[in-house]
Amino acid sequence: MQQQLDFLETHAPDIGLFLFQAVDYERTDDDGWGGQLGALQDYLTKHEYSIVHTADWAEELVRSDVQPHTDIEGAHNRCNLIATQWPISRRPLTLRNRGDRKPRGLNYYYSQFPEKILVSEVDISGAPALAPDTLELWNVSIINGANWGEEKLNMLETVYGRIHLQTTKTDLPVVLGGDFNAPKREDADGSIVPHGGGAGQYTGYPDYGDPYYFQDSAGDMTGLKFNQRWQRAEARIFDTDVGEWRLRDVYWAAEESPTASSVEDYTHVLPNGSPARKRLDHVLVSQQFDVKKCELYNAELGSPNALQASDHAPVVTSVQIK
Fold first, then answer.
1. How far is Cα 213 from Cα 43, in angstroms, rounded to an integer?
2. How does pLDDT run along the chain (322 residues), one tens digit per residue?
3. How many CB atoms lie within 10 A of CB 73?
4. Which of 48, 113, 245, 302 is most buried, by CB atoms within 10 Å?
């Protein structure tokens, strides 16, 4: 943890917004927070950041005897955290549609890991040069599909479905960032290869997992096999020819930064992976943003090396609301 704090002090002194994932936490004797969360809180508070996190949600779930959480306590031992230089508030998602938010229908939500989807609102009304008063931030940690199977798809589909409604029905600027555990590979031209192509034979049945259907361009309802659903879920996030939510990955949208394939410029290394190097961590922004720069702090392409302090390299970007 000290290595991470030292790295932040040296290489990120002027960052306006942080999205942290997989932050472990523990309770202190005075009912505060210890572990990585406590260390980050101390550092960020000292530097006058406003903070929201999901440790309380994770803590309640890890203690739950309600199925299926009795069997997934290990995955609830981490939380997400957002820190900004502006006032911020956490906005929990809901299954109910009370009609008190627009657009209606934003109750689309499927996941057993709510603490890994942190949605917040940032009050930027104090910045007179900016037209909007509010910025919506999504900080997600998509669960590893190799261990949790359909839960990964549920999370990807929740994020896509909710933000699709938001970006098509409102003018609210949206920033989405996190560890997506996807895609499998990004080529130098920006095309992606999703996971799921080598799924086991049993996943070829349309009713494996939740039956899933969609309406094709001719209006016919088509059933997706599980591996097809997996690939479609990743593609809608990162393939602009498939996704219709108008979010852009800052890595490819940056005007002043070099780009490379994910095996050359990556955020995570899995020694036994195929491929071993992957770009699993991303920041995506809605159309209201101009993207100036994006750099992965992985010691490639002349960047600082954060992989000495973490197993994931940060995505560092400079964006501006139009």
1. 47
2. 999 999 999 999 999 999 999 999 999 999 999 999 999 999 999 999 999 999 999 999 999 999 888 888 788 999 999 999 999 999 887 777 665 555 555 566 788 999 999 999 999 888 777 677 889 999 999 999 888 878 898 899 999 988 998 888 888 899 999 999 999 999 999 999 998 766 555 555 555 555 456 666 677 766 677 788 888 899 999 998 999 998 999 999 998 899 999 999 999 999 888 899 999 999 999 999 999 999 999 999 999 999 999 999 999 999 998 8
3. 12
4. 113
Instruction: Indicate if 107 and 159 belong to the same structural domain.
Output: yes
* Residues whose CB falls within 8 Å of the CB of residue 189, separated by 6 or more in sequence, listed in order: none
Q: Do strands 174-179 and 117-123 pair parallel, antiparallel, or not at all (unpaired)? A: unpaired
Using CA atoms, how far residue 122 sits from 20, 135, 157, 314, in Å, is: 16, 5, 24, 21
Q: In terms of domains, do 222 and 87 share one?
A: no
Asked whether residue 56 falls in the same domain as residue 198, the answer is: no
Total-model pTM: 0.91
252 and 309 both lie in a single domain: yes
Q: What is the CATH number of the domain that holds 51?
A: 3.60.10.10
Same domain, 308 and 182: yes
Burial 289-306, CB ≥16 within 10 A → b, else e: bebeebbbbbebeebbeb
Which two structure tokens, joined as six digits, stand for 264? 């050359």
Burial tier of 49 (Cβ tally within 10 Å: 0-12, 13-18, 19+): buried
Containing domain of residue 216, as a range? 192-227
